[in-house]
């Protein structure tokens, strides 16, 4: 590889890494500000494993039930699918959502007890 080509590649790569680092630094500063604000008002900050599908109510509760509901159905158009989805959501009882959120508490504790490992194996 030519020296000038290598130099251009290194500059491009280093520039991309610098931009990523700047974004990460900004995110960290924002997170620290939020944490300080929460602590100032006496809120307890609980540990939360990053990117855990075990702790996203949409993943462990909503999507599974929706997938079962839609299983085997075929839709002619996107509008037909949207209509079925709206119908399904409109017919859900308020308790459906309450149960999903409340089940998050026990899943959260299990995940913490497992040191961030998956709750469901």
UniProtKB/TrEMBL annotation:
Residues 1-10 have a biased composition (Polar residues). InterPro entries: RNaseH_sf, Transposase-MT_Hybrid. Residues 1-26 are annotated as: Disordered. One of its GO terms (molecular function) is nucleic acid binding. It comes from the Eukaryota. This is Histone-lysine N-methyltransferase SETMAR. It comes from Plakobranchus ocellatus.
């Amino acid at each position: 590889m030519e020296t000038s080509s290598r130099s251009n590649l290194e500059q491009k790569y280093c520039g991309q890494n610098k931009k990523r680092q700047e974004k990460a630094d900004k995110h960290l500063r924002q997170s620290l500000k939020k944490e300080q604000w929460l602590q100032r008002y006496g809120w307890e900050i609980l540990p939360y494993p990053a990117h855990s599908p075990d702790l996203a109510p949409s993943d462990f509760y909503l999507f599974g039930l929706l997938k079962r509901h839609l299983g085997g159905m075929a839709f002619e158009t996107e509008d037909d699918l949207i209509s079925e989805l709206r119908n399904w959501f409109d017919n859900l009882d308020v308790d459906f959502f309450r149960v999903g959120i409340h089940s998050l508490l026990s899943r959260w504790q299990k995940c913490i007890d497992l040191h961030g490992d998956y709750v469901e194996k």
